[in-house]
Amino acid sequence: MDNQSRGFSLETFEPHLLFEAVTGTGFEHRLLKGGSFHGKVTRLQLPHCRIDQGIYNLPCFARGSFPEGWIVIGFTSCRKQPSWGNGTEIQFHHLQLCSDGLAFDYRTSPDAAWHAIQVRREWLQEQAVAISGREIEIPKQGFLNLSIPLAFSEMLRDQVDLLFTADEYEPDFQTSRFAATAELQLIRTAINAIQGVCPAEAARNETLLKQQAIVEHIESFLAERIDASQVVQELIQETGLTEQSLQQLCRDIYGMPAEKLFGVARMSRIREELLTQRPDSITVRQLLEKWGIRHSGRFASQYREFFGETPRQTLTRVR
């Protein structure tokens, strides 16, 4: 793993290495597909806001929450394929206006860059009043996924790229007068984009909040009941959803049906256990039986496809 101040690179998927690489982002990251993984996360601290951005070559699910008192403005730079935030499709012409303290689930598409601007609520509203004489209508809970004019989409991305490029090549850029000026220009572009849109998405916010409560159930099962033999059926009973509704929700949120989602999560947990065991203390078969895996050959094939090695190779790896 190459872990530098401006990014990280992982050659293979190891859950603990991915966790270490994204520590400090405030979000737990989980890969949704195996293979050689490369990713980069960068951060820029400006006088009144912070900008985070990242890009991964494999689909990734990130889960966390934004700090209280900070409003987050998010967008993607990818034109070819969408990303998803709390189950809502996010395209190039969309801008997300998130309430402070929002719990947010984000699923990236491969090679789809994301950007998040965190700005103090008070300063953001001061700038809004200075520009238009009125404050921005920020949701009390949830977020708005606003469809903004393409010109504003282009301007936001160009201005963010300019800031990161200047920070890379200019010494002491973050405390310079140019940084403060460029920051103000970026925030004013975002305000103009937000205030020029009728918040038609606001009505959908209640639906998204109810959907998020169901996602909390799914995440609870992933963390605490992943070893249950009938985990999908138990989840259906607890949430009150039909199987069809649950499968569609999992596709919207995670990009895969429920059975595959729990299968991928179970594989990752088994791998973590294999990496902590000694070959003379347990066999692969015993471990799979513990996890209720009946078809060891099929599991080994899926495991190798995801991690690039067999379960036995993981168990006997030199530590």
Outline:
This protein is of the alpha+beta class. Helix content is 45%, strand content 21%.
Description:
It is elongated and about 65 Å long. The longest helix is centred in the middle third of the chain and has 20 residues, at 150-169. It contains eleven helices and 13 strands. With 319 residues, it is an alpha+beta fold. The strands form two sheets. The protein has an eight-stranded antiparallel β-sheet. It has helices spanning 15-22, 121-132, 150-169, 177-195, 205-224, 231-239, 243-254, 258-276, 284-290, 296-307, 311-315; strands at 2-4, 7-9, 27-31, 38-45, 49-56, 60-65, 70-76, 83-85, 88-90, 94-98, 103-107, 114-120, 143-147.
